[in-house]
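Quick illustration, no need to memorize.
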Amino acid sequence: MAGILIVDDAAFMRLTIRKMLEKNGIEVVGEAENGIEAISEYNKLKPDLVTMDITMPEMTGIDALKEIMKQDSKARIIMITAMGQEALVKEAVMNGAKGFVVKPFNEEHILQTIRQLIVA
């Protein structure tokens, strides 16, 4: 099963996603709390998939997405977004995001989205 990098500025959200994935047999290879760390960790870990929060300090998820896609056009990134950020989701998808999950998400939806991309 694939290794996943979790990117979110909220520690509790990273922990929630990590627990959800690990209990379903999906390996988490790393975490980052902003876009700058996300790029660094992506380059270091070469994960199969990234879950990326959109709204973060220092560098947004969209800016990190653009940078990662520039470096690796095959990167698989799922954006995690709060309700009401449709314009940002559209921008993310146009810049290479492979999917998105809206918070508050349910476990089955996030697992289904991740499994579709890992198998793809």
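Strands lie at 3-7, 27-32, 49-53, 77-82, 99-103.
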